[in-house]
Amino acid sequence: MITVKNLSFTYKNGNTPALSDINLEISDGDFIGIIGESGAGKSTLTYTLNGIIPHHYDGDFYGAVTVNGMDTFENKPESLALHVGSVFQDIDSRMVASVVEDEILFGLENFSVPHNEIEKRISETLEAVGIADLRRRNISSLSGGQKQKVAIAAIIALKPDILVLDEPTGELDPQSSVQIFRLLKKLNEENGMTVIIVEQKIMLLCEYAKKLIVISNGSILYNGNVREVLRNIRELEKLGVNVPRTVTLCKRLEELKACGNEICISIDEAENLVRRITNG
What we know:
Blueprint: E1 2-11, E2 19-26, E3 31-36, H1 42-49, H2 52-55, E4 59-67, E5 70-71, H3 77-80, E6 84-87, H4 100-110, H5 115-129, H6 144-156, E7 162-166, H7 174-191, E8 194-198, H8 202-208, E9 211-216, E10 219-225, H9 226-230, H10 233-238, H11 245-255, H12 267-279
Parallel strand pairs: 3-8, 3-9, 6-7, 7-8
Antiparallel strand pairs: 1-2, 1-4, 4-5, 9-10
């Protein structure tokens, strides 16, 4: 469980708050997507969930964030790491080893995972992320997308309760992006892992997330079920959020009185809606 109460944060030398009066509850087992315009405060919010803010970024911090009962102001990121696993955009600066398997091994040893479990965790995680063939590759020889997968694998191997990802598919091709989302869905549904993800590929995100949080100018504008949030399509478009084209289609059909206020997320759903209309 994550609870955020009256949270505001302004970076040192910042002119305006990056986050302003955020109140939020994320339940165990949630799959949350965070969207919003560039500079809205999405990444800043994720930094507050694992203690990077306020411990690694200076600024004015007000309010409280608790993760599994631990106050992030009082507990440093290393104390929270087994509760909250994080994957951020700046992959290269966070790599600590030169070889792929050593990158995953580092975290497992650092957090005292029993030695007889380590090999199994490394093998299973590499296979799950689809990079078993990279196990002994030098990280410096990998593409940006491959490094992204290594970073995800290193965190998943630790089996945290909560996984926070900031644009994890930014360097990945469409096929690899889907593979990562399918893995996240499996971890969420089968292992009960809470997933919180900032993502620009909104159509893909909406197919997998259970809830959406929309941030604008450091504040939460919408927070709820994916379909209900997407009903605010015109407001989202004004923010510069690229809603799925299937949603745009549904809204246009509704305006033409061709259908009710249905919201289609997947292409299959949109196809079925159009078939019902044209056959009706």
